[in-house]
Amino acid sequence: MEGAMGCGVVHVVSQRMVRPSTSPPTVKGNGCHGPKAEEEDSEVIHLTPWDIRLISVDYIQKGILLPKPPSSVGGDDNDLVNALQSSFARALRLFYPFAGRLASEERGDDGTVSVFLRCTGEGAEFVHAVAPEVAVADIVSSLYTPPVVWEFFPLSLVLGADAAIEGLPVLAVKVTVLADGVFIGMTLNHSVGDGTAFWHFFNTWSEINRAAAGVGSSADLQDDLSTPPPVFERWFLETCPVPIPMPFRKLEHIVRRFERTAVKECFFTFPAASVKKLKARANDEMAAGGATAATISSLQAVLAHFWRAVCRARRLTPEQSTFYSVVVGCRGRVNGIPLGYLGNALVFGKAEATAGEIEEKGLGWTAWLLNRAVASFDEATMRESLERWVRRPDFTYMDNLSSAGTALVTGSSPRFDVFGNDFGWGKPLAVRSGSGNKADGKATVFEGPERGGSISLEVCIAPDALERLVADQEFMDAVTTPPAA
């Protein structure tokens, strides 16, 4: 169904702003104590260097494909959407700052600007859409991701800074009813939270809706939820000024929109058996070479397999330098950052080599490069870099991470609970992401649908290179081919 796979088949039924269902109780130390009637009196959450450096990238866009609920659960489409909106409002009660707005303050006297999250309670965007010509099989039966998936997300191609400049919501969802399924796409401003925060909210929302549908306990208050309570108080270095004055007269001066070159996407799933085999091979190669200090993880083995294949698919010359940027989470690595921390808590690790080295030295050595990039994290060094950032702020730009088609960057984590997001009528059938931050070389990692050790990679690279990647037998031997529609 080629026509349904193009653009223009998703039709918006309604669009509204959803406020938290009730004002949340004051939570000591969360940095936000409920709404005020006037914006100038509302509480604020000041943003950290980790938050602000990501204000220059697109919103996070991830979503899940669910089966169509039976009439006993969802009623008609309007009943379903109204129920989801109600549980969304209750989730917002617990994650109240997500209903706020980013704001900036320009100081003409010293030529600086600061940005912060104001807890105004204005609401998050909730969109109801329909795509009756699109079926579940159209999305999951091919390695290639159809362009229509990008239409399942609100606030597309919006930078984080745009929210403060234009008064946009920091959180939005779009519920699209398909021919035989439902897609729930969520969009979160990256300067407000990272992937951990994103899925924390998603998991909470689905649990609340599942309880309302009569599956499980009455999960409405935090005490009834399996997810940890959200913590909104931001983590700052003791020497960091709050708010942080940045040496720009206007927030707009930070913005740099990257050139969005033509890319195509594929969704590759590595079953648990393939992951285990790649991990064993990588560690065996390292042991044969005399290395015993590092143990290659499952994810590092999969990403090394991918990196080597992409070098071949891009036809990089042996002397061509290539690097891989991987996200290193700081929860559990930095004292003072609790499990439920809702801000950004991540840094980038970087592995670099020539394409010739990656090809000649094998899977184990390539995985070891990635292992070293993660292991190089050091809290003292991280603190020094944050101190430097305050003096000389720099920002994350996708074109730098892509590096003109010679580099790779992977975000997200297979540890995020994607397939536990049962809204009350069955677990997700698939996970996909939107157009946000889709540059040549972007790969997003998810837990595999079979869980238990499987890993999925959503790969976005230049069309000709992607075609060669799909034809690469060595790479594809480790991938599960989806069943035909």
From TrEMBL:
Alphabetized InterPro entries for the sequence: CAT-like_dom_sf, Sec_Metabolite_Acyltrans
Segments for region (Disordered): 19-40
GO cellular component, one term: cytoplasm
Annotated keywords: Transferase
A GO MF term: acyltransferase activity, transferring groups other than amino-acyl groups
Signal sequence segment: none
Transmembrane segments: none
Name recorded for this polypeptide: Acetyltransferase
Lineage: Eukaryota, Viridiplantae, Streptophyta, Embryophyta, Tracheophyta
